[in-house]
Amino acid sequence: MSDLAFAPGDAPRTSNGATVVHADSQPFHYVSAAPFDPYAVERMTPTQERFYMASQWRMMWWKLCRHRVAVVSGAVLLTMYLSILICEFLAPYGLDTRNTDFIFAPPQRVRIFHDGRLVAPFVYGFDYRLDMANLERVYTPNPEKRQTIRFFCRGDDYLFWGFIPADLHLFCPARGGQLFLLGTDRLGRDLLSRMIYGARISLTVGLLGVAVSFTLGILIGGIAGYYGGWTDILIQRGLEVVQSFPHLPLWMALSAILPVSWSPLLVYVGITLILGMIEWTHLARAVRSKLLALREEDFCTAAVLMGARPARIIGRHLLPSFMSHLIASATLVVPGMILGETALSFLGLGLRPPMTSWGVLLNEAQNINVVALYPWLMFPVVCVVITVLAFNFFGDGLRDAADPYH
Which H, E and C letters describe the chain, residue by residue? Predict the structure, then answer.
C-alpha cells in the first residue's frame, strides 16, 4: 500500500508528517543585488596571490635563497668578481713593483695592540741577514720598527683598466716601510698584489670559456635533439669521440701548438677557446635530451603547424623551457675551466708572463725545495680551492632550485 495519508482540506502528507510538494508549485527564489564576482569563493590573500602567480624565475630565486650554502657561495663569487673590476685599487703594490731588498720575504702579521693599547693596524719591519751556512735569507721582525698601515692612500702609479692613470690604493705600507701580508717572490714582488691582479685573468677565463661551450652546446645539441634520426646519430658519435680523449693531455697538446710569437692577449684568447671547445659536450648532451622530450609536446606541434621555422621553435619555445637547467649546468663547468687554465699555466703551457694568473703564480712553486723553504708561494692554491668549491656549491643550489619536481 501507499504510505501517503490524506486529511480533509490539507495538502498530501507522508506517513512521517512531511509535506508533499507538487511539481507545479513555485518555490521561493532569492536573487542577490550585489555585483557578480566569479572569484569571490576562491579569492586569494595577497601572500597567496604573490606565491601562486609567481613566475618560474621568481620561484627559482626563492628556492635558491633557502639553500644557505649556495647563498654564501654566491656571495663569495660575487665579491670575487666585483673585486676584479677594481683590482688596481685593492692591491697595495703595482703588478710589477719590485722590492729588491726583500726577496722571498715571509708574510708580515698585522697587529692592532702595542704596549697593551689598541692602536691603528700596523706591522713590524724586518731585520735582514744572509745565512751563509744554509745559503738563505733570514728576515726577523723588529718590534722597534712599527710601521702603521695607511688606508685610502697614494702609492704606486697604475693605469686603471690600462687607460686611466691613477695612484689611489685601498691600503698602503707606511712611508719608507714595507707591507707584505702574503710575502714576496723571487723578484721581491708582493704576492698579495699579484694574486689580486691574477684573479682578473683566472676568473674571466672560466666565464669566457663557458660562453664558448654554452654556444656550441646549444647549437649542436639543439640540432641533434630537434631533428633526430641520422643527424642525431652522427652528432652523438662525434660527441663520444671528443669525450673519449683525456682532457688534460688534450689541453696540453692544443696549448703546445700555440705559436710562441703570439702576444699575451692572443695566448689568452687561444687558451679560452681551447677550454671552451672541449667542455661543450656535456651541455650538448643535456640540450639534446631535453629537446627530444619537448619536441613532442602540444605547444611545439602547434608552432610547427603555424609554420614556424625550426630556429624559431628551438630559440623561442624549446630552449626557454629549460634555460634554468642550462644555467645551472654551466655554473658547474666553470670550475673545470679554471682548473684547466691553472694546470696549463702551472706546467708552462698556458698563459705566460707578463700576464699574471693564479696558474702563472704557481709556476714558481714547481720546485719542491722552493716550496719547503718558502711555503707562502703556495697561497694561490687557496684562491683556486675557494673558487672551485664556491662554484660547485652554488651550482648545486641552482640545480636544485631549477628542478620543478624537487
Answer: CCCEECCCCCCCEECCCCECCCCCCCCCCCCCCCCCCCCCCCCCCHHHHHHHCCCHHHHHHHHHHCCHHHHHHHHHHHHHHHHHHHHHHHCCCCCCCCCCCCCCCCCCCCEEEECCEEEEEEEEEEEEEEECCCCEEEEEEEEEEEEECEEEEEEEEEEECCCEEEEEEEEECCCCCCCCCCCECCCCCEHHHHHHHHHHHHHHHHHHHHHHHHHHHHHHHHHHHHHCHHHHHHHHHHHHHHHHCCHHHHHHHHHHCCCCCCCHHHHHHHHHHHHHHHHHHHHHHHHHHHHHHHCCCHHHHHHHHCCCCHHHHHHHHHHHHCHHHHHHHHHHHHHHHHHHHHHHHHCCCCCCCCCCCHHHHHHHHCCHHHHHHCHHHHHHHHHHHHHHHHHHHHHHHHHHHHCCCC
* Cell numbers that stand for 354 in this block: 707578463
d(CA 386, CA 203): 12
Region of 213 on the Ramachandran plot (φ > 0 left; ψ -120 to 50 alpha; else beta): alpha
Question: How many Å apart are CA 387 and CA 390, to the nearest integer?
Answer: 5
For the chain of 406 residues, list the mean pLDDT of each consecutive stretch of 10. 47 49 58 70 70 76 88 93 92 89 90 87 89 81 90 90 88 90 91 92 86 86 85 88 80 78 82 80 84 83 86 82 76 82 78 84 80 87 91 86 64
Residue 124: phi, psi to the nearest 5? -90, 135
∠ CA 47-54-331, nearest 5°, is 125
Q: According to the model, what pLDDT value does residue 28 have? A: 66
- Those residues whose C-beta lies under 8 Å from the C-beta of residue 188, and which sit 6 or more positions away, are 98, 99, 100, 101, 102, 103, 105
Only one residue has cell 697587529, namely 111
Provide φ and ψ at 179, rounded to 5°. -145, 95
112 C-beta neighbours (distance < 10 Å), count: 10
CB 318 within 8 A of CB 295: yes
